[in-house]
Structures are given as structure tokens and as C-alpha cells.
Amino acid sequence: LQEAVRATPETRVARPDPVERINPTPTEADLRAAVNAGDIRVAYQPKARCRSGTLAGFEALARWDHPDHGNIPPDVFVPIAETSGLIDRLTLQVASQALRWLADLPGEVRTGDQNDPVLNRLQLSLNISARTLNNRALFDELAAICRKNRVPLDRVILELTETSAMEDAAVSLNTLTHLRLQGFSLSIDDFGTGYSSMIQLVRMPFSEIKIDKSFVMTAMNSSESRAVVRSVVDLGRSLGLETTAEGVEDEETMRYLKSLSCDIAQGYLISRPLFAEDIPAWYVERRAKLEARRIDALHRL
Ligand code: C2E
Ligand code: MG
Ligand code: MG
Ligand code: MG
């Protein structure tokens, strides 16, 4: 197929593929300019408790709207940031936007409860690249950003992918222990896609395991996926960790997760990642729906 694509450049000029035109590989210079200009925005995806539906927090996800090429997915630009030395600044930009936003959120949601306890306890998840893991100065800066915004460190969850945390397990153990002692919460992202041994995992001071979306999204059609989801939820429970399922797209999967007593769900069923300006309205609507459901359940008792 690649041969065929390469052999027909004329056709590609004559009938450009719109998808290809929207997402060409951006250059390092483009990304550098965007980071310098502060053009990386943050989208926030909610996480909800499976049992009660209560909002547990949000994951901050970097977004880059390229002036010529449109939205570039983070799976494309984060690796470029990693190889070009921009990742530390990207991480700090995402963190400072997100923490300022989190601190202001209770004031933005004006209707109803003036002092909504849920909003004052929300956690914020930040994705941390393996390349940043050994940079203690960066985590000190992160801690300073949290203090400036009066967000206690245990409300900030640093997400590391399974592969990055286990790359050099001895170094990671050291750094992660340091971060945990500093007060951060730690999460192991995309769990199930790497090959970490249970023994290594048990020694790492994580507070959450996130089951990779590839298993969650296929759980209802694949007994293998269900076996992975079930085992990870069990593992999390045995280790006293919170288990989060990412990629929850439908009610059936949600019911299945509840039946396993999985703690937290994240996915399109609850909401796609949202920009800050859309969250107060989304939250007020969701709170009203939950309240209606609660009253309904009381009537059925
Ligand atoms: P991740 O940390 O595993 O984030 C979850 C990804 O799954 C997000 O993709 C999210 O939009 C997507 N997702 C959530 N729910 C669903 C669902 O129900 N169905 C489907 N199909 N997808 C869902 P996104 O935003 O494109 O991010 C991709 C990856 O890029 C992230 O995976 C993370 O590894 C990385 N990333 C994003 N932002 C940052 C950042 O600020 N720093 C670093 N180092 N990495 C980041
Ligand atoms: Mg993540
Ligand atoms: Mg993930
Ligand atoms: Mg991922």
C-alpha cells in the first residue's frame, strides 16, 4: 500500500485527502513558536465516581490549534516536545493554566450552592512525560504553582504511563517516592499496555491505576478485554489503590464497571474533554440530573 501511495503523487496533488491536509506532521519550529506564544490550551475531561456519579476531578489534556493545520493531537506533538527539549515548558504551561482554572472553578459555578463541597475537593490529573521524571526542579516549580493557587498537593495527581514508570524502575522508585513525600498523588496511566511486573508495581507509591482505554472500549465485545479489566480492578483493590477506567463510552460498560466495583470512570459517556468556558454550564446541568435521579430513587424506595 505504501508503495502505491508513493507511486501516485499526481493523484494526491489533484485530489488532496482532507484528513491528510488537516494533520500533517508539524515541525519543531512550529511547536516552539506555539509554546513561546502560549498557544497551547488545556481541555479538561471529567472523572466521575462509578457508584454515586459524583464528580471526582478532571484530567488536563494539552490542545494545539495550529493556525494552518487545525487541531494537532497530543499523540503527535507531545513526542515532538519530548525530543526537542520543549516538554518541560509544555508541562509547566499546562499545569499553570490548569491549576489557576481549578482554583477559580468554585467561583465560576454561581447558580445554586455557593459553597459546593464537590467543587472544593476536585482533583486535577496532569500527564507527566518520562523525560521529565528526573527533573526535580520541574516538580519543585509544579509544587510552587500549586501553592500559589492554594491547591493542596494531594489534589494533584501526576499521571505516568506504565512504560515510562517502569523504564528504569530503580530511578523511578526513587523519584516517585520523593514526589509522594512532597505530597503529590501518583497514577499509573494506560495500565495493561506495558509489561510491568506485579512486584515492581507493588513497590511503587501509586495511589491510582488507570485501565487503558483499549480494554475498556472493547470490554463488551471481548471476553479477553473483560478479563483484563476485571483483573486490574481486583489488583487495584488488593493494593488499596483507586481504579479508574478510561474510555467509558456507553451505559453497558458503565454498568459492567459498577458490577466490578471499579471506583472511577472517565470517557465520552460522562463527557468529552471540554474547554474551561464550557465547564460551569456542563457542571450545573450534570448536578441537576444527578439530583433528579437521587430524588427519583428515593421515591422508588
Ligand atoms: P491519556 O493520558 O491516556 O489520555 C486519555 C486520552 O483518551 C485522551 O486523548 C482523551 O481525549 C481520550 N479519551 C478519553 N475518553 C475517551 C473515550 O471515551 N473514547 C475515546 N476514543 N477516547 C477517549 P488525547 O487528549 O488525544 O491525549 C492523548 C495522549 O496524549 C494522552 O493519553 C497523554 O498520554 C498525552 N497527553 C495529553 N496531554 C498531555 C500533556 O499535557 N502532557 C503530556 N506529557 N502528555 C499529554
Ligand atoms: Mg492520562
Ligand atoms: Mg491513558
Ligand atoms: Mg494514552
UniProtKB/TrEMBL annotation:
Residues 24-287 form the EAL domain. Coiled coil: none annotated. This is EAL domain-containing protein (Putative c-di-GMP-specific phosphodiesterase class I). It comes from Chromatocurvus halotolerans.
